[in-house]
Amino acid sequence: MARRAAAASSSSVVSVGLTQMACVEDPRENRARQARLLEAAAKGGARVLCTQELFASQYFCQAEDHRFFSLAESIPGPSTELFSKIARKHGVVIVASLFEKRASGLYHNTAAVIDADGSLMGIYRKMHIPDDPLYYEKFYFTPGDTGFRSWRTRHATIGVLICWDQWFPEGARLTAMGGAEILFYPTAIGWHPKEKKEYGVAQHDSWETIQRSHAIANGCYVCVPNRIGHELVRGADGKPVSKDGIQFWGQSFVASPNGQVVHRASVDKEEVVIVDCDLSKVEFARTHWPFLRDRRIDAYGEMTRRFTGDRMEFRP
After folding, report:
1. β-sheet bridge partners, residue 231
2. Which end of the chain has less neighbouring CB within 10 Å, N or C?
């Protein structure tokens, strides 16, 4: 089950483990399956592990249905307690993507970062929330208020963003500026089956390309675990809320600081991917392609505006 892309042995090398799996309706079964994959990754030598987005359930955002708020859990809660035990047992760092109930009526799409001693280092709440056909996340998730963060864990300094965040270069840049050597993007993305023939190749290529670009622009590793399976979420009447559902495209991958894909998982197989990331390549990339050095921070103030075209100058 474990597949490995190896680097030369060095104190600067940290092994990253990504898991991809299909989800069922029962959260307990999903949590147990995820725990088994994390154990396999740890036993395979991975030191920093990351789950796919919202691993504890099917991707319920295919529908706007109040029943699904019951899937949320607190942090700390059952998932973080279980994964803290795994982290402590194996001395590994775990990034777990969860549907967080923060308070009554206040819910987030959240990643918990657990250090190698089993302690909860902190959380990142998804900042960019989509609202598209079958991706009705604004119904469930309050936009994050944690800002873009990095954590100096036992094994590496990491940053975490979540799915839709991956399309925004600002989030990757700010997380890298916080010191992150590795960016993790737990993800749940797939095709609308009826669109796959016409748009499928281009959609996947765009998704991978934008994240490889983050690796290049910030001189860091980018690690992306994505779910697999064809999910037909059922409504209260027991019928699928969409006749087509979403076909998740898997293909979890790791990109190196030069943007190359070091390893790409399958489209439809449950997998544990273990990749050796040589952190000396982060320093190499940032000194040989010194984008962080050459940023014109004096000229970027307008980035905080929604739009600047309405102030365009017209000259004869």
Report:
1. 246
2. C
Q: Are 233 and 195 in contact (CB under 8 A)?
A: no
Is residue 299 one of the residues assigned to a domain? no
The answer to whether the CB of 35 falls within 8 A of the CB of 29 is: no
The span from the CA of 34 to the CA of 46, in Å, is 15
Paired residues of 131 in beta bridges: 136
Q: Return the active site residues.
A: 53, 126, 163
Q: The tokens 């076909």 sit on which residue? A: 247
Residue with the two structure tokens 């993800």: 187
Backbone angles phi, psi at 62, to 5 degrees: -65, -20
- Is 60 a domain residue? yes
Please check whether residue 316 lies inside any domain of the structure. no
Matching residue, tokens 């873009």: 148
The domain of 108 spans: 2-293
pLDDT tens-digit series, residues 121-173? 999 999 999 999 999 999 999 999 999 999 999 999 999 999 999 999 999 99
What is the Cα–Cα distance from 110 to 96, expressed in whole angstroms? 8
Cα separation, 260 vs 215, whole angstroms: 9
> Looking at residue 275, which CATH number applies to its domain?
3.60.110.10
pTM score: 0.95
DSSP assignment of 211-263 equals HHHHHHHHTSEEEE-B-EEEE--B-TTSSBSSSS-EEEE---EEE-TTS-EEE
Cα(249)–Cα(204) distance, rounded to whole angstroms?
A: 8
Strand pairing class (182-184; 48-50): unpaired
Q: Note the helical H segments in the chain.
A: 27-43, 78-90, 169-177, 193-218, 280-288
C-alpha 62: how far from its chain's center?
19
Residues in Cβ contact with 281 at an 8 Å cutoff, skipping those fewer than 6 apart: 256, 257, 258
